[in-house]
């Protein structure tokens, strides 16, 4: 997306033309509701879905957004606008970091709940979707994947619940402030930083 830039601020995600320094398209995350979302009950007030982090896939026209409501939203840029492709949730608190892995529609997310999750969204964003909400309901659980917790690898239980499920779950234990992916000695690793002075390193499966 040369000449274009995506910017997240509070509730809004904006596509900018950098040459002309003007916004091209803006989406309010509060208006991005799936069919499962209903009206807010009277007397209940929730924090709005503040946008925390953005990541653009290597294809250049797909980007993800992590928000305060614990949801991950994926958008497709078409011309001077973008449309929501997919929306799913795996974190119990806000999604502080999102990161597309290079060369694949694999997405890393880090949350305020201390978890790092790996998602394979290639089946959803690899092709155009007419209804992201309906696609979310149709998607079935994938084969179980390994999860790392306290230095041990465990299996993520599979079930028949519809929706996007993480391929890998890392229980980091502290709020995730930053994530990155690198290769160490020929193997992919995810780097995780929190409020401490150290960086944690976890193994990643190959796409």
TrEMBL record:
InterPro entries: WD40/YVTN_repeat-like_dom_sf, WD40_repeat_CS, WD40_repeat_dom_sf, WD40_rpt, WDR53
Region: Disordered, residue numbers: 126-152
WD repeats: 88-122
Keyword Endoplasmic reticulum assigned: no
Domain of life, source organism: Eukaryota
Key words, A-Z: Repeat, WD repeat
Coiled-coil portions: none
Keyword Repeat: yes
Record-linked PANTHER family: WD REPEAT-CONTAINING PROTEIN 53
Protein name: WD repeat-containing protein 53 isoform A
Protein's organism: Patagioenas fasciata monilis
Species lineage: Eukaryota, Metazoa, Chordata, Craniata, Vertebrata
